Description:
The complex is a heterodimer of chains A (110) and B (114). Helices cover 0% and strands 56% of the residues of chain A. Chain A is built from no helices and 11 strands. Chain A has strands spanning 5-7, 10-14, 19-24, 32-38, 45-50, 56-59, 62-67, 72-77, 86-94, 97-100, 104-109. In chain A, the strands form 2 sheets. In chain A, strands 2, 4, 5, 9, 10 and 11 form a 6-stranded mixed beta sheet that branches. A 5-stranded antiparallel beta sheet of chain A has the order 1-3-8-7-6, with no helix packed on it. With 114 residues, chain B is mainly beta. In chain B, the strands form 2 sheets. In chain B, strands 2, 4, 5, 6, 9, 10 and 11 form a 7-stranded mixed beta sheet that branches. At the A-B interface, strand 5, strand 9 and strand 10 of A face strand 5, strand 6 and strand 10 of B.
Amino acid sequence: ILNVEQSPQSLHVQEGDSTNFTCSFPSSNFYALHWYRWETAKSPEALFVMTLNGDEKKKGRISATLNTKEGYSYLYIKGSQPEDSATYLCALNRDDKIIFGKGTRLHILP
Amino acid sequence: DAGVTQSPTHLIKTRGQHVTLRCSPISGHKSVSWYQQVLGQGPQFIFQYYEKEERGRGNFPDRFSARQFPNYSSELNVNALLLGDSALYLCASSLGLAGVDTQYFGPGTRLTVL
């Protein structure tokens, strides 16, 4: 069974601070990793699709890195803003299945 | 352009009944995937359909079935509903296979089984 683990489960960050969290997965047979942001009462929104070891992607204040050999990806948020409050999900493609982690719930404190 | 649409928004059923959920992908997208999401968990993969063929199936019982139509819209069917089927059902579409291409999610159908 493929397990995609995300940590921490929940995170409180002061507005203006930077933060990061982790997605871990078995490194064998890696194909692609996705990051999503899911705000309350909205649909999950795709942030990044990453396929290559060493990949780095950036979208505004959010960036992500990928290490397929050791089986992890980091998501970074620089200068957190209230609109960053959401659940951040990662998902892995394996054997024609898309496996999601449980997510990291990010709360931005004013 | 319209995003992914799902119907109905909410649904209440009783145990043993059957339910059909519908999804219309973004125009031009050929893949539709279905997910079940319960509180505290990430979305659980149910099916992916690409070009009207099943391309992936999650660990769900045979009570769950789906199909994709020539216009790429999709239906998810659940028979003999159980209380544990109560969840948010999400549909996502992508240009190509969901594992590689960006997925765009619909607003979901909230199913309550009494």
